[in-house]
TrEMBL record:
Transmembrane region(s): none
Biased composition (Acidic residues): 565-575
A biological process from GO: DNA repair
Coiled-coil residues: none
Species lineage: Eukaryota, Fungi, Dikarya, Ascomycota, Pezizomycotina
Identification of the protein by name: Related to DNA Polymerase iota (POLI)
Length: 603
DNA sequence: CCGCTGTAG
DNA sequence: GATTCTACAGCGG
């Protein structure tokens, strides 16, 4: 039995995927229309990007070709700006605000509401002369289109099924038709008004729209035609939905969401080669391609088997079912709402050799400087208030700073081989003084490096020598938006719980056999911590701000509101605490199981 | 919350 | 992964 189980499809959305053509080259062109030496610009960038494996080789290349222009670090900002501008442009068309960016040059849009609204406006008697309304309340803004035809390219045979699920597939067809015209309009607008051409895929979910867009690459669009789902009977008679036909032709690893690790595991299983060593893994090595069809038709294949192949400790729960869905073109994940602020900002650099403290210090300063600049460009916005002297205010405060390194594997005594390259990291509270807009940039950097980054570095690398880093990364996370007055706080206790768990369990361990520890002091201690200064940032940052006398906003009212929102929302105390039903002792929830064991010992 | 893994462009 | 620099989701503690 090759019974691939039917997937429940939910094709009630209209989702398109944008891919800007040659994004990096286009940015150059748009910045400098006069210098339309297109091939040159492209080649320069490509040379930098794919080129010359490492920084070292770049330096060598420099000797050979002194003319080479190296674009790094700072230059990324221009691409980021361009990307953001295009994203905002597209976002303005949506009603739902569902616009999600992937990297610099890809965007998904959920246009279901706009399209469905326009379906309701169609005149069935004159579909050729339809008008697409871009705004709900304005019948004049929009464009004319022919609703009997799909705009742009298509994949799939329009097909007449023996057992058509007519209603669903008709609705889908109509949605896709209108969606294709809207997509064309957006592509056109993007080109006319922003100077960027793009390639678009149109379908009913993220994965399919992304994949189908690849079919007609520059400056075009592709719609995945219905039928998306067909009846059991049709399957028996050898028919196939266009979704199946389409996605089956892809290599497993090409399916978004199935990356290197997962596709390797799947391949190994399908090729029935137990854990192929990476012996012959020389790059360029032709791997036998294992397509989605190969996997799907493999004996016994299904979500359960995939769970066995892919599951395990640390794996995502239900990964088998998820992978199975992906391979069947099923993807119910939502297009994310447009976000004002990123969830993290990080800066990193890689090194041939970085093994002394002075070098590290220097690099930390460089990285911290870039990071702070990024925070300024991404997290500051103009303050309308004319009373504001500085004229800017933070739209979000990251609460956490993280330092990561990638140690170069210590050279094995016996030979040459080196092992994995994983990153290690430490994170902690981001001091408040980094938000000062008055204090000297340099002085902020210095303080950040000395007071925060260096101590974290010491935690990662306690000994002053003996390491050699191939990469250093610093980043800020845990954004708290300032406008929206602390959403659902509460999450803070969880961190504390785990933080304290270690200590408490230690005590338990030590004393378990003899005298069960008294839970009360533990609870009290914790409580005093939290009312006091469990989170050192809470007090220090406020203090720093005050002592620096400079905050992002001049107005005392705003400052205090912000600080209250950000730094003084510590009112947790009792959350996460539980009371023992046996003796009435109060303690953190995590300690309760152990405490109950204590009672069981008593008997 | 913290540290780490996997995925993606 | 071959490489570089990001960014995000999810797991287990």
């Amino acid at each position: 039995m090759l019974g691939a189980k039917p997937q429940k499809r939910r094709d009630d959305r209209l989702i398109i995927h944008f891919d800007y053509d040659c994004f990096y080259a286009s940015v150059f062109e748009n910045e400098n229309p006069s210098l339309k030496s297109v091939p040159l610009a492209v080649q320069q960038y490509e040379a930098r990007r794919r080129g010359l494996h490492k920084l070292q080789l770049i330096n060598e290349a420099k000797k050979i070709v002194p003319d080479v222009v190296i674009v790094l670090g700072e230059e990324l900002g221009r691409f980021r700006d361009a990307s953001k501008a295009l994203y905002n442009f597209l976002a303005a068309f949506t009603w739902s605000g569902k616009v999600e960016r992937l990297g610099f040059d890809e965007v998904w849009m959920d246009l279901t509401d706009i399209v469905d609204f326009n379906i309701s406006l169609l005149n069935p008697h004159d579909l050729e002369h339809s008008f697409f309304q871009l705004q709900r309340d304005d019948p004049t803004t929009g464009f004319s289109f022919n609703a009997t035809k799909i705009a742009g390219q298509v994949f799939g045979t329009p097909i007449t099924s023996a057992n058509p699920n007519q209603d669903a597939e008709n609705n889908l067809m109509t949605r896709l038709t209108l969606g294709s015209h809207l997509a064309q309009h957006l592509r056109w607008a993007l080109e006319e008004q922003k100077g960027y051409t793009s390639t678009v895929g149109i379908s009913s979910n993220k994965i399919l729209s992304k994949l189908v867009g690849n079919l007609n690459k520059p400056k075009d669009q592709t719609t995945l035609l219905p039928p998306y789902a067909i009846s059991e009977r049709d399957v028996q008679s050898g028919m196939e939905s266009n979704v199946t036909t389409f996605i089956d032709s892809h290599d497993v690893g090409k399916v978004p969401g199935i990356g290197f690790k997962m596709s390797q595991r799947i391949r190994n299983h399908v090729l029935s080669r137990p854990a192929d060593f990476e012996t012959g893994l020389i790059y360029g090595g032709t791997k036998e391609s294992v397509t989605v069809r190969d996997v799907r038709l493999f004996a016994g294949m299904g979500p359960e088997l995939l769970e066995k192949i892919l599951g395990g400790p640390g794996a995502e729960r239900g990964i088998g079912g998820k992978a199975w869905n992906l391979m069947n073109g099923v993807d119910d994940t939502d297009v994310q709402q447009a976000k004002k602020v990123p969830t993290q900002i990080s800066i990193e650099d890689s090194y041939i050799r970085l093994d002394t403290m002075p070098q590290v210090l220097k690099e930390l300063r460089i990285l911290a400087t870039s990071l702070l600049k990024r925070m300024h460009t991404d997290l500051l916005e103009h303050d309308d208030d004319p009373d504001s002297v500085i004229g800017k205010r933070w739209i979000a405060h990251p609460k956490t700073v993280r330092l990561s390194t990638r140690p170069r594997p210590p050279l094995n005594a016996d030979g040459t081989r080196s092992r994995p390259f994983n990153r290690i990291s430490r994170s902690g509270p981001l001091p408040g003084f980094v938000f000062s807009l008055r204090e000297e940039f340099e002085s902020i950097i210095e303080k950040l490096v000395q007071e925060t980054l260096v101590p974290m570095f010491r935690k990662l690398h306690p000994s002053p020598r003996g390491w050699n880093l191939s990469l250093v990364n610093i980043g800020v996370t845990n954004m708290v938006e300032t406008a929206s007055e602390d959403g659902k706080g509460g999450g803070r206790d969880i961190g504390r719980m785990f933080k304290r768990q270690e200590e408490v369990l230690k005590e338990w361990k030590v004393e378990d056999k003899d005298i069960p520890p008294d839970p009360l002091p533990v609870a009290e201690e914790n409580e005093s911590h939290s009312t006091e200064q469990t989170d050192p940032s809470a007090g220090n940052e406020v203090l720093d701000s005050i002592m620096n006398g400079s905050e992002d906003a001049i107005q005392p009212t705003q400052t205090s509101v912000e600080e209250q929102g950000i730094w003084e929302d510590d009112e947790d105390a009792d959350e996460g605490q539980e009371k023992c039903s046996e003796c009435g002792a109060v303690m953190p929830a995590f300690a309760m199981p152990a405490h109950e064991r204590f009672h069981s010992f008593e008997e």
